[in-house]
Design goal:
By secondary structure, the chain is an alpha/beta fold. The two termini are about 20 Å apart. It has 2 domains: about 30-195, Rossmann fold (3-Layer(aba) Sandwich); about 225-325, Orthogonal Bundle (Helicase, Ruva Protein, domain 3), CATH 1.10.8. It has 14 helices and 11 strands. The strands form 4 sheets. A 5-stranded parallel beta sheet has the order 2-5-8-1-9. It has a two-stranded antiparallel sheet with strand order 3-4. Strands 6-7 form a two-stranded antiparallel ribbon.
Length: about 325
Amino acid sequence: MEFNLALLNEQIQSESVFLDKIKKELHKVLIGQEKMLERLLIGLLSEGHILLEGVPGLAKTLAVKSLAQAINTTFHRIQFTPDLLPSDLIGTLIYNQKNSAFDVRKGPIFANIILADEINRSPAKVQAALLEAMQEKQVSIGDTTYPLEEPFLVLATQNPIEQEGTYPLPEAQVDRFMLKVKVDYPSQDEEMKMLNLLTANLLPEAVSAVVEPAHILNARKVVRSIYVDEKIHKYVTDMVFATRYPERFGLESLKDLIDVGASPRASLNLVRAAKAHAFLRHRGYVTPEDIREIGMDVLRHRILLSFEAEAEDISVEDVIQKVFDTIPVP
């Protein structure tokens, strides 16, 4: 090993202190949903967009808005609807009669953190405009291309139970999301705590800005330096290749259940997300537990199941868990 791991751990301990400040602020308005909050921070640290899926009322919008408030950065919430136009998202050219020229009016995509609420309610042209912003971190208006200011993060939500008036996201766009997080109901104790606060007529405290964008950009550099052993790389590629060629890994039972395996972007995002997960744990190296902890959210939207799997009521989570249970841990 060419570097001092103890020194790197010490640096990580120092650089990751600001995360505790962010969590403290978010807990002023949020009860529970620890997994969702952690995934939002992972996306922020590893430059990965996140798709949040869950029924209404699970504090998805509140969590994203509160995160932006805690970071002292620009935030725009865009409500996606079937009549939304690309210009409503990225902006347009407005004719100025005074100087007989077209002026640029930038749209809400020009912010550091974007909440794309109910993203699957927008038509294909709008999703294509968002795709360029997500992948290229730039927007084209007329003949000019405008770079988006860093940090830039798209956090999208979709409702899994309502299908009327929705447009399924193209596979190319879904693959651009680093994580697809399924947001669950709070526990009974957490919901009781919410009711007690409501009964006591206690208003939640306001979230204060405790971190500057420069802290996030610096933390991203540190996250990239986190050590990943060659055995971890082998573990990751074994997992991903097992979704493409299951018979090579003793998973013959999955061969007829998977139509399309995970893309190479899955391998890259598994490592990037695992580095951010290690950073959250104030650690300078990635372990197999980091990969397994984040693996479900990285893989679930990158594997397409066959009709046979649907007929047998087998979910993509079942398939991924089978891979986890079979691939040897280094």
